[in-house]
Specification:
The protein has 75 residues and is mainly alpha-helical. The chain contains 3 helices and no strands.
Length: 75
């Protein structure tokens, strides 16, 4: 993201990976993280939703002046 290379297409891949992680691993543990680190109890999907929100929100901005994407597609 620092160099601005393919940020917009990669965000969809990242969001998809987080949705699959929620569906396959974290859903049956509930929403919250396991802060007490109880053995046998996994983490919920709270952090995954936060990462999805950051991926979706972080890509809404415009490309920077030094972005590689700006050189590839000047529009």
């Amino acid at each position: 993201m620092i160099v601005g290379l393919l940020v917009r297409p990669v965000r969809w891949g990242f969001i998809l990976v987080m949705l699959v992680a929620i569906a396959k691993v974290h859903w049956h543990h509930g929403f919250f993280l396991n802060w007490s680190l109880e053995p046998g109890k996994g983490h919920g999907f709270e952090m995954n939703l936060a990462l999805i929100g950051m991926a979706a929100g972080g890509s809404r901005g415009r490309r920077g002046a030094l972005s590689i994407d700006r050189c590839l597609r000047p529009w």
